[in-house]
Amino acid sequence: MEKSTKDKILDAALDLMATSGYSGASMRKIASKVGIRESAIYNHFKNKEAIFEEIVRKLFVTAFDDFFKNHPPQIEAIKGKKYLKEFVAAYKLVAFDPKHEKLFRIILIETMHNQKVRKLFLDRFFSRDIKDLSMAFFFMMQHSLIRQEDPHLLAYEFLAPLFSLRLELTLLRMEHEGTTALSTKFERHVDFFWEGIAISSPQA
Amino acid sequence: MEKSTKDKILDAALDLMATSGYSGASMRKIASKVGIRESAIYNHFKNKEAIFEEIVRKLFVTAFDDFFKNHPPQIEAIKGKKYLKEFVAAYKLVAFDPKHEKLFRIILIETMHNQKVRKLFLDRFFSRDIKDLSMAFFFMMQHSLIRQEDPHLLAYEFLAPLFSLRLELTLLRMEHEGTTALSTKFERHVDFFWEGIAISSPQA
DNA sequence: GTCTATACACTGATAGAC
DNA sequence: GTCTATCAGTGTATAGAC
Fold first, then answer.
1. What is the pTM of this model?
2. Phi and psi at residue B153, in whole multiples of 5°?
3. Which residues of A have a CB under 8 Å from any CB of B?
4. What is the pLDDT at residue A203?
5. Which domain holds residue A70?
6. A66 and A157: one domain?
7. Weakly modelled stretches of chain B, pLDDT under 70
8. Alpha-carbon distances, residue B106 vs A31, B65, B79, B183 (angstroms)
9. Cα–Cα distance for residue pair B83/B75, rounded to 1 Å
10. Which of B13, B38, B56 marks a domain boundary?
11. Could you give the CA distance from residue B155 to residue B87 in angstroms, rounded to a whole number?
12. Tens digits of residue pLDDT in B65-82
């Protein structure tokens, strides 16, 4: 079962892009890696950007959609802090996974100069994840696990430091610097966050 | 008093870069905007990257260094929440200022493919600002305004959502979408954050 | 020192033959 | 689908005029 030329192009492009950046991954290098001429690529993709849009679309996977599918807030949010811990564990798994790390780098680059990717980025990090998480906080409030607050705000406040950590992680990796010190920060964030919103003394 | 050619090059480059992105600002366009030949640019800058490094270095100003100079934590942190409000007001001023917005866009782009800018970025957003702010939190703790917590962690948790808002703001602007809804989120962040750490009932 | 002229290797992209 | 040939545009370099 031979891979299609189109898939070979995508693989080659992802590889080159991850190591040499967007502009470092020239059409000629991609073509030579696949074993065809540059112009042949244009039979499969409109242009260079189209290649990376497809990479992003294919790999910008539903890492957290999966989490919410397997941990539906309506049922599991009752776990309170434990639920957040599980979310962060899933988040860390993605953040530290080499393949997703590559992708995250590409997304960040492309976000700044490709409108379609930018829209994906905005929708993903500033809408969908927040919407899913805010539902969990809503249920926690209903069960008096946390104090009354706008669920949307809570989700934003919970996710922003995680995103920040992931960004820092990516940049440090690009510098080939250590990231072990970062690892514990994820859990410390949950502890701090929960401390600020939890209802410690039971009340009606 | 005529501007030097070097400054003209920097101005032209910043302008082109802000509207057409890094690769859209070609050496030929920059040169023609200044009124010289491409090759003349190389009398003033080693290469294209050197131009943008200089732009970033010059404009990546000490917007928040200024704040801490005018609002020394050792003296003013006693104001507690009011101090944070003032910081966020300064932060918003920078975030919504057109010139700094341009710069922020360039920095984000360059961070992903220029090591020097990346180092600047890491130092600025993940070290210096946090270090300065953590001192303020340290003093608030000493005055029993907030609960005991790692000042560094507090600074991180306080800054991350602000950075996140600024990023979202920048991306929305690139989409020519409205940002008025974002504006109030800055203040809501301070309210939420303070609620989570403040010592409400006075205690020794 | 500052500019012009010219050249080079490389880029993304297209047209047309097989 | 893939090729060859070719295009304009890019960053960069150097030699030489003023």
1. 0.89
2. -65, -45
3. 21-23, 105, 108-109, 111-113, 115, 118-119, 121-122, 126, 149-150, 153-154, 156-157, 159-161, 163-165, 168, 171-172, 174-175, 185, 188-189, 192-193, 195-197
4. 43
5. 60-197
6. yes
7. 1-2, 61-63, 201-204
8. 31, 20, 35, 22
9. 10
10. B56
11. 12
12. 789 999 999 999 999 999
Q: Is the CB of B5 under 7 A from strand C?
A: yes
A33: CB within 7 A of chain C nucleic strand = no
Categorize the per-residue pLDDT at A204 as very low, low, confident or very high, splitting at 50, 70 and 90: very low
Q: A129 with A45, same domain?
A: no
**C-beta neighbour count of A119 within 10 angstroms:** 13
Distant-in-sequence, close-in-space partners of B169: CB < 8 Å, separation ≥ 6: B95, B96, B101, B179, B182
Is A168 within 8 Å of B22 when comparing Cβ atoms?
Answer: no
Report whether B83 contacts B77 (CB < 8 A). yes
Question: A73 with A95, same domain?
Answer: yes
| Mean pLDDT (whole number) for A152-181 | 94
Nearest residue to C1 (CA, C1')?
B43
Taking alpha carbons only, the member of A74, A179, A172 closest to residue A132 is: A74
SS3 B136: helix
Across chain A, the runs of DSSP E, i.e. the strands, are none
Q: Are A172 and B111 in contact (CB under 8 A)?
A: no
Query: Taking the alpha carbons of A68, A72, A78, A82 in that order, is the dihedral positive or negative?
Result: negative
First-to-last alpha carbon distance for chain B, in angstroms, is 63
Whether residues A168 and A98 fall in one domain? yes
Mean pLDDT over each residue of chain A, to the nearest integer: 90
B109 CA to chain A: closest CA distance, Å? 6
B75 and B147: one domain?
yes
B50 and B125 share one domain: no
- CATH code of the domain in which A41 resides: 1.10.10.60
